[in-house]
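Retry 2 of 3 after timeout on previous attempt. Resubmitting C-alpha cells to design endpoint.
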C-alpha cells in the first residue's frame, strides 16, 4: 500500500491539531481550578471572606459568629424573582460603631441589588436598599 505526500501531510496536520487542542483543554482545566487562598478579615461578629480564582475573579462571602451567612433577596432582570445568596459581588464596611455591612448581589453586569446587612446583637438580617443596572 502506497501513501502519497498529500495524505501524509493531512495526517500530520490532524495529529498536530489534536495535540494542540488536548494541551489547550488540559491547561484550561488546570487554570480553572487554580484558587487563590481565601483571606478573612474579622470585624466583631463578622468574618469577611475574600475568595479568588485565577480565571473567575474575586467574590466575597460572610460568616456571622463563625457560621456561613446566606439570605434570600431580589433576583432577575427586574428584581421580580428571588435567589439565595451565599456570595456577593462587592462588600463594603464602615468605620463607625454601627454593626452593618453593605453588599451587592445579583448580576454585576445587568441588574444587581444592594442590601444592608445589619446585626441587632441577636441575629443578622438583610434590608433591601436599591436596584442598579
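Retry 2 succeeded. Sequence:
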Amino acid at each position: 500500500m502506497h501513501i502519497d505526500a498529500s495524505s501524509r501531510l493531512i495526517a500530520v496536520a490532524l495529529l498536530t491539531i489534536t495535540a494542540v487542542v488536548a494541551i489547550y483543554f488540559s491547561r484550561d482545566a488546570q487554570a480553572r481550578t487554580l484558587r487563590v487562598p481565601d483571606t478573612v478579615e474579622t470585624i466583631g461578629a463578622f468574618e469577611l471572606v475574600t475568595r479568588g480564582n485565577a480565571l473567575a475573579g474575586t467574590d466575597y462571602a460572610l460568616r456571622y459568629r463563625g457560621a456561613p451567612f446566606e439570605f434570600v433577596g431580589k433576583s432577575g432582570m427586574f428584581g421580580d424573582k428571588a435567589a439565595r445568596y451565599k456570595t456577593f459581588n462587592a462588600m463594603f464596611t464602615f468605620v463607625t460603631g454601627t454593626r452593618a455591612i453593605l453588599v451587592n448581589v445579583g448580576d454585576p453586569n445587568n441588574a444587581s441589588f444592594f442590601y444592608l446587612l445589619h446585626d441587632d446583637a441577636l441575629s443578622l438580617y438583610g434590608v433591601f436598599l436599591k436596584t442598579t443596572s
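Attempt log closed. The radius of gyration is 24 Å.
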